[in-house]
Protein: Gamma-glutamyl phosphate reductase
Organism: Weissella jogaejeotgali
Amino acid sequence: MTELLNKIGKQAQIAAQTLAQVPTSTKNQVLCAMADALEERTPEILEANQADLADTTGLEDKFIDRLTLTADRLAGIADGVRKVANLSDPLGNIERGWTTDSGLEISQKRVPLGVVGIIYEARPNVTVDSAVLCFKSGNAVILRGGKEALQTNIKIAVILREVLGAFNLPKDIVQVVAETSHELAQQFMRLNEYIDVLIPRGSARLIQTVVAHATVPVIETGAGNCHIYVDETADLQMAIDIVINAKTQRPSVCNATEKLLVNAAIAPDFLPQIAQALASSHVEIRGDEQTCQILGDQVRPAQPEDWDIEYNDYIIAIKIVDGLDEAVSHINQHNTKHSEAIITTDYEHSQQFTQQVDAACVYVNASTRFTDGFEFGFGAEIGISTQKLHARGPMGLKELTTTKYVILGQGQIR
Amino acid sequence: MTELLNKIGKQAQIAAQTLAQVPTSTKNQVLCAMADALEERTPEILEANQADLADTTGLEDKFIDRLTLTADRLAGIADGVRKVANLSDPLGNIERGWTTDSGLEISQKRVPLGVVGIIYEARPNVTVDSAVLCFKSGNAVILRGGKEALQTNIKIAVILREVLGAFNLPKDIVQVVAETSHELAQQFMRLNEYIDVLIPRGSARLIQTVVAHATVPVIETGAGNCHIYVDETADLQMAIDIVINAKTQRPSVCNATEKLLVNAAIAPDFLPQIAQALASSHVEIRGDEQTCQILGDQVRPAQPEDWDIEYNDYIIAIKIVDGLDEAVSHINQHNTKHSEAIITTDYEHSQQFTQQVDAACVYVNASTRFTDGFEFGFGAEIGISTQKLHARGPMGLKELTTTKYVILGQGQIR
């Protein structure tokens, strides 16, 4: 098993060295050819996918839905690949440069990370998406997806690798780990000799497992216990529109709002209005003591653990706060450092909130749902980083790269 | 024990929130007052240091030397603190900003990491240095140093904390972990709830232990198996000067050169010259087969493991290569991705080397010894990152920070 992983790792490292020198125009041609191949070979992929779907005993419907491919979905995936071809290539950019007192010319140049490991669940779209984002950013990728999607993933990899081969590029730029045991996953997370970065994509549980067991540097993505604070100066209609959007437009994702903090001064006026709007959208409300007093039996009492839960569902918890200080302090204590918003018409309050709240994305008068690589204009997204090292917030192609210093001298010694 | 660490962690987190809002001018005043206090209270610090030095049974001389403070050394440390006061503050800088199609104004603003954990050996200078660099970059710091320096570290922390208190700042901006058991160190590395980043500073062994056991994100620093490749077009006198400087100016540090690769075409001419220069500097040579053939009994044969060892000593291993491709491939296989140099007069070769060698710093015609925060002009250094995430190469104040996105809207929803 260790032997298998070492072989895969070494192959990836060698392939990455070649890929790092491939010009952007070639990479874009390859991406378009990959998109075409995925469409042309749809029947083969669907056949492999059917094999994976042959036994779905005990799997949830949501799980099966994510695992299932159709011709339409594949066309959408192929279109995504073409969009990556259109993104600008961050590699080779000189981030900064200067000449030292000793006359050395230093440039900090953007280069690939090298080998990226992706650990994810049974979602074939993540296979394609991760492979092409890593490819465009000059990285070899090792994909370790959920075992339920293994046949589909292997077939997709075969197709992408054949395209790489047709362009005389090393096929090992894209590799799928075909053995899906728990033990192998553990070893994969400790393959420091060959893997430069590990990105887990999926549920909070998957991510926590990777963080707990990996020795390879990890980019933590995902969990979002996001808050909206409605200030006493807020435009209440704007507050209602934003809360409803942030909670209900897509409740299952990490940038959906989970908690509503309301200034005590406007609570008696605002709470009945927002409660009605939430009820119309079938959102369950859990309230702190004061909220329950105002809203009565429209709400059930929130438990202490409610303030830390990411519901990912049609549920919201509401807390009344005395003012901005309490709101900031509650958020900094309970948030997952993802996305936080204030609704206000007060300039000072907007400043204090954006300065003091500790999160990847801090909003004034907008929905937390905008925390997204596409909405940010990055054109793609490999995930939303909730850690502070390397990348914070939506990660696009640039966040899949690193830099190196190139130093040109004329014989300098110390 | 867990209770102690949770308490320290929580205190650091609260202190960090206050520190994040402190203006640069105040921080600089505090730093100058810290420098003064360290000098004024030299007798107290030396007394604590003597207590640590009371029993040095079994410790190496080098170890004792690093642990020992004198009035002169303390004056030097205080001067270092004043220099940090003079550095420009990276916080608050807007790294980039744009307006999205939906009219959101996004700015990416530089902010502190939050709480930084430092794990290091019995070197009291690292206590001061880490504390003030973290302070200037807006981070609370938790210092876990070697147990042999505990009394000194506690005394230094008391003094720095009193200065913080005198400026009405939270003393918990600087905390020393006073219990130095192995078990506590292990728990410290897994304190994800409170520590944002862990930086090990010290030996390769210390760093590897932290990488293997930490779940908190780690910035890996240190190990340097650095190479110089002497191209067939090199100015041989320049090559000799650079090799002697890179090997002997300070052999114990990570940016010292450990390996010399020589193009076969110039080996018969160059090797006797460099061997003589190395002999004059008391450097032991270990050679591959061809090197041994040319230099005879001036060298001992290199063993396979020699190509991966960081000697940190007056030892160098020499290998003859057929050309640039072999040099690049040998370096990428054996280096620690720290600093690599080519000596050449050929433009194409300089380009190929800087493009293909995978390392934090790649040099043309200069000594690898320049990989250093001060030499780079950063004015300070918390270490040299050899990993690819977050920071690569010398890390100054900017590398002790992260960013957050501030998004200003007018009621936008998706």
